[in-house]
Every structure is written in structure tokens, then in C-alpha cells.
Sequence to fold (210 residues):
Amino acid sequence: MPLLLDARGKRVVVFGGGEVGLRKARFFASEADVTVVSRAYVPGFDSLDNKITKITSEIGEEQEGLMDGADFVIVATADRQLNDRLEVRAKSAGKYCNRADGVSSFLIPSVVERRNFIVAVSTLGRSPAMSRFIKGAVEDRLGPEMSSMIDLQEELREKARCLIPDQRRRERLLWDVLEDKAIWDALANDPEQARSMALRMMEVDHANDL
Fold:
């Protein structure tokens, strides 16, 4: 079941300092409190020094105990037997566990993030490469006018509440704007012109109601 989560204040523990551990630590580091445990780290972890806590150690009972205070556990070591043990410990403690080499209780999607919106892509663990491929295809189609349209829709929605009492008519107006190619073209080149065009559509709709 996909969802968006506010991870501020959440605690994440990552077991494994390789490329996969790095990618997953980076995913959470912008919001969550992330601790990574590993006996060695790939160089990319240096860029996260101010954003995460690193514990350089073999993973034993003391280190496994870190997951008791965590909200999410990431298992990403190169040792499958160790991963088995960590997964069992996490699940027995009732923690959401993401495992790099096996079935997980939650998945981390490929993410396309733009101003005003986020698109997440997952193949449900079946093909990480295909997730990245789909992400690339989506990125190529999402220009800055998409973010500008969200700004415009937000403004229109607020103004329409005052001018157009009927909810269905308000919804129709917003869809009419979304389906107007001229407004999309203007958004790509002159957002203020697009705004004027959309506001004029709303004014005409309101005038027809008088």
C-alpha cells in the first residue's frame, strides 16, 4: 500500500555501509534521525557526515539493540545470514524492516521530486532496475510547468470558493484549465500570462451565473 510519510522525528537504523546502505541512508537523511552501523563505509558516506550518525563496529548484540529505539530498520549488509538474524530481530520487535536482499515489510521507491510535487515508482521489489528506468522516463516528461500549474490550481481553487458556490462547477472549471493547451503553453513561457488566462475563464464562468 503506497503512502507518503512525514519522517521528521522518526528514527532509522541502517545496518550496512555499502552502496545500498548509502542509498537508503541518503533517502531518509533529509528528514529522519539516521544511524548507520558498519565495520566499513563506502566513500559516499562522507557527504552525509553532518546528517547521520555512523557507528564503526562489527554488528553484535549491542549494535542490534539500536533497533529497539528505531521506527524503521534497514538491513543491507553483504552477509545473508547476518541479514536473516537482523530481520528476525526487527520483526520480533514490531519494527518496519526493509531488507536489501529479500522480502521486506516496507519498500523504498525510486523518487522524482519537483517543486510542489513528488512521484514515487516501485515494481514491488521485482525489478529495481526497471524502477529506475521508469523514473527516468517520468523525469523526462515533468517540466517546470507542472509545478507552475499546481501554483495556479491552488490559487484558482481558493478564488473559486468565493465566486462559484456549486462544487461541481468549481471542479469543472479546474479541469477545464488543466485541459487547456494554450494555458499549458503559456505556463512554459510566461506563467503570468497563463494566470491571466485562467482567471479570465473563472470570471466568465462566474458572469454566466449572474
